[in-house]
Predict the structure of Probable transaldolase.
Amino acid sequence: MKFFIDTADLDEIKEANDLGVLDGVTTNPSLCAKIGVRDFEGHIAKICEMVAGDVSAEVVSTEYNEIVEEGRNIAKIADNVVVKVPLIKDGIKAIKTFSEEGIKTNCTLCFSPTQALIAAKAGATYISPFLGRLDDISTDGMQLIRDIVTIYDNYGYETEVLAASIRHPMHLLECAKEGADVATMPLSVIKSLLKHPLTDIGLDRFLADWDKLQKSLEE
Ligand code: E4P
């Protein structure tokens, strides 16, 4: 399973990348606005230099010709950039065009299995089902992941299932069990994957016992 970090914050990306388990980055307009990105292309270029894997950068156009023009410009930023396109009619058309041009895409804002099916048929590199936002409205986000994995397996689609809007470690665990190809998570969730109170208690005990042994040897 690939781990992506869901942020545009360079410090957070560096911290996750330093762990040595990061496979890519996803950004979106809200994440860019959160940290006040001024030079969008320059900022994405920096992220692409920092990490070896795929970096999603989202278009803000909603009309076919404009999405294609904006996406082609984004694709020039770096070899590892992925053009993120919303799951709307013109977005699907643009994804088909990008796929024919060899430009990688991340089809975003997916909330239903049929949307995911159309995105795969258009040749999206990644589909981003938004797990947490479905849970937020009392709908089973995990069922969407399960359905997409089943549909893609049934027909052998190569589009990778990129579980997005992940809010906590249990989301990640369920996605891993269901076979999602990628999970994109905030830094807080990546760090929480490491934590277990028994690990901390066990380590404290090991170190205390080692100290005791050293002291007894000095006597
Ligand atoms: C990633 O590609 C998505 O834009 C992101 O995971 C959305 O997460 P949110 O629902 O927490 O905003």
Summary: The pocket of erythose-4-phosphate is lined by residues 6, 26, 28, 108, 128, 130, 132-133, 164-165, 184 (CB under 6 Å). The first helix runs from residue 10 to 18. The first strand starts at residue 2 and ends at 6. The radius of gyration is 20 Å.
